[in-house]
Specification:
By secondary structure, the chain is α+β, with helices and mostly antiparallel strands. The protein has two domains: 125 residues, ATP-grasp fold, B domain (D-amino Acid Aminotransferase, Chain A, domain 1); 80 residues, Rossmann fold. Helix content is 29%, strand content 27%. Strands 3, 4, 5, 6, 7 and 8 form a six-stranded antiparallel β-sheet that branches. The chain has a two-stranded antiparallel ribbon with strand order 1-2. A hairpin with a 4-residue loop joins strand 3 and strand 4. The longest helix has 17 residues. The relative contact order is 0.11. It comes from Skeletonema marinoi. Its cofactor is Mg(2+). Keywords: Ligase, Magnesium, Metal-binding, Nucleotide-binding. This is Succinate-CoA ligase, beta subunit. One of its GO terms (cellular component) is mitochondrion.
Length: 246
């Protein structure tokens, strides 16, 4: 496995290089659940998602058991209420100590907020044969804008697991996300960039990227932006939109 490439639904077609392997003690799990917290645009805050079935992706769960998935939007100014915690614990179908399970759910929420996370996904969240709740596997995403508050976390970043174009863009303070199309985009402003991509798509084209150079980009940043776009062999044309206001 080491030195190979792992391809999954979440890695993209190119996959990710395997540089390290985590060895963990074998667990005797009696039941597996799905638990996650995401930032939700619709509710304007954290959203807890839980399911009484786990061990597989949420996409598969949504297809196979949509009725078992519960969603609990949380007011970020006050955090989850006791009633909301109870709803999540009951929705999971925990058979052990429900109060202890509730404490763990709240601890995961506190982690999400305290560490400026964009995602905390525990899959599976499981019960062992003694009824103890265990975070058997987890994935955590952190808000890049909060890097200055969590240097200890961001110092562990493995750039080999990221799109090299996105890594290069970050060095120039450019907001770049690679896509699968063939029309490169360079725009000043995130909203204008999204609108530009929509126009391309509505007219039968396919954007190769999202790239916001910001409102005060310097010559060096613009040059770097073009170099990043043209480094993608799929790009056949470039669309640049700039809004200038005095």
């Amino acid at each position: 496995m080491l030195g190979g490439t792992l391809v999954t639904k979440q890695s993209g077609a190119a996959g990710k290089p395997v540089n390290t392997v985590l060895l963990a003690k074998k667990m005797d799990l009696a039941k597996e659940f799905y638990f996650a917290i995401f930032m939700d645009r619709a509710s304007g805050g954290p959203l807890i998602i839980a399911c009484s079935e786990g061990g597989t992706s949420i996409e598969d769960l949504a297809e196979s058991s949509p009725e078992k998935i519960i969603k609990v939007p949380v007011n970020i100014t006050i955090g989850p209420t006791d009633e909301q915690i109870e709803t999540v614990v009951n929705g999971l179908g925990v058979s052990g100590d429900k109060e202890s399970a509730g404490d763990q759910i709240r601890a995961l929420y506190n982690l999400f907020v305290d560490k400026d996370c964009t995602m905390v996904e525990v899959n599976p969240l499981a019960e062992d044969t003694d009824g103890n709740l265990i975070a058997a596997d987890a994935k955590i995403g952190f808000d890049d804008n909060a890097e200055f508050r969590h240097k200890d976390i961001f110092d562990q970043r493995d750039h080999t697991q990221e799109d090299p174009r996105e890594v290069a863009a970050a060095k120039w303070d450019l907001n770049y996300i690679g896509l699968d199309g063939n029309i490169g985009c360079m725009v000043n402003g995130a909203g204008l960039a999204m609108s530009t991509m929509d126009i391309i798509s509505l007219n039968g084209g396919s954007p190769a990227n999202f790239l916001d150079v910001g409102g005060g980009a310097k010559v060096e940043q613009i040059k770097a932006a073009f170099e990043i776009i043209t480094s993608d062999p799929a790009v056949k044309a470039i669309w640049s939109t700039s809004l200038v206001a005095l």
